[in-house]
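Quick one:
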Amino acid sequence: MALTLSLVSTLKKTPKNNYHIILIDDKNQPISGLPADLNEAVNQLITVSCFQGKLGATALAYANEPQDGLLLVGIGTRTQPQVGQLQKIAKAIYNQLSQLTKSATLILADYYDDNAFGQLALALLNQSYVFDCYKSKKADDAKLTEIRVWVTDTQHATLQNVLLQQHAIYKGQALAKDLANQPPNTCVPQYLTQKAQQLANQYPTLLTLKVVGEKDMEKLGMHCFLAVAKGSVQEAQLILLEYNGSQPDTKTTTKPTKKTKNKAAALENPIVMVGKGITFDSGGISLKPGLGMGEMKYDMGGAAAVLGMMQALCEARLPLQVVGALACAENMPSGQATRPGDIVTAMNGTTVEILNTDAEGRLVLCDTLVYVQRYQPQVIIDMATLTGACVVALGHVRTGMYSNNEDVIFDLEQASSASQDRVWHMPLDDDYQEQLNSNMADMQNIGGMPAGSVTAACFLSRFVGDIPWAHLDIAGTAWQSGKEPTATGRPVPLLMHYLQRKALQA
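Output:
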C-alpha cells in the first residue's frame, strides 16, 4: 500500500504500535515543545544512544506494549532548510520505520512554514516509491502506510491544503517515474497512447483525448516529426490531452441538447504543455556510442512529465484549461531512416537541413509547437531531455530554462523557488541564431558544439513566433544516471506549482 500523510492536532489516542518521530537539532534540542512524559523519554534516548542531532542521524527505541516507540532524527543546525536537507530527513524516517510499523506520528508543531512542510511531505511520499514490476523477487512490502503529522491549530487549515496538493503532485510524479522507468520494448509510442487513454477514462469529466497518427501528420505537412520516425517500425503518435477544469456559469448555462451533451466544451486560450517523447533514442544513422545507450529509454522524460502533470492536475482539479501534448516517436537506424544531409519541411513551411539525426528531439517538437497553436494558447511550455550540453552547463541540479517572455520567466522562477524543482534562466540572444544558418535550406538542425543547449532552444524559438513560450531542457534532471539509473519525475512539481500560481492569477 502507498504511504499517506494526514494532520492531527493531538498526541493522544495514537494507533497501536505507533512510533513518535522527534526532530532534534545539533544542540540535542527538539524542534518543538513536548509533553513531559515524551520529553523525558527523548532525553533518556539521547543519553543512552549518545545522539548528537547531526543531519540524517537517527536513534531508535522500539515500541513495547502499551508504550509507543520513539525515533529521533537529526536536522543539523536550525537554519532555513534546503530541499536536500529535507530529503535526507525524509529518507532517515522512512528507512528506519518502513518495515517496523504501520503508523507513526511526526511532531512538527509550527517549526516549518508551509513551503518547507510541503517539501518534507513530498519527500516522504517519494521515499515510498518502488519500481520492481520486472523483478522476479519483489522488494518486501513496506509496513508503513500512514504518517500522522502533529501541527498547531493555527497552521492546520493552511497545511491541510498544502498536503492535498502534495498528494496530487506525488501521484503525478509517480506516474511520470513509472512511464520513464519502463523498458523501451514496452514503452513505445502506442503504449503512451494507451496510458493517456486510461487517464482520460479515469477522469472523463476533465479530460478529452485526441491522437494524431502518421497519416494525419503527412496530410498536415509535419515532415520534421515524420523524419524522426522513418527508421522505426513503431508508428509516431502526437497525443493530445485536453483538460477543462473551468466551472460553467450556472446562471447562463443552457440545458444540454442531444448535439451537445456528450461533447467537451471548447478550450479558450489554454495553457499548453509539450513533452518530448522519444521512447528510445539510438541516434538514428548518427548512431550513439554503445556505452550508456540503455539510458536512452529516458529520452521520453518530457512526455512522461506532461502525462504525470495531467494526472496531478486532475487530482488537484485546478480551475484552468490546459493541453498536454506528447510528441512520441522512436529514433532508430534502418534502410528507411533519415540521413544526415536530408532536407525536410516543417508544418509551417520552414525547410530544415538535418545534419545530425541524433538532434531529433527538436524535430518532433518544432512540428508539435506549430500544431498546438491551433488552440490559440496563452502560453506554451515545452520540456525535453534535449541536449547533453545542458548537462555540462548545469549538471543534475537545475533544469535549463529558455523563454521569449519576461512574465513567463518570472512565473516559472517563482514556481521553481516554491517547489524547489529548480530552474536556471539561460540566454536566448539573437546572436546565437546565426549558428543555425544553412547554405541548403532555411536552417539546419544543429548549431555546432559551442552553446549547444542555447542553439537547440534557438531552433525551437523559430516555431513559436510571438506566443509567450518557455523551453525546459531536462536532460540533466529527468533521471538519475549511474549504476542505479531511475527516473526522477521532474519537472512535475515545477509545473504544478506554476499551474497553481496561474490558477490564483485567473
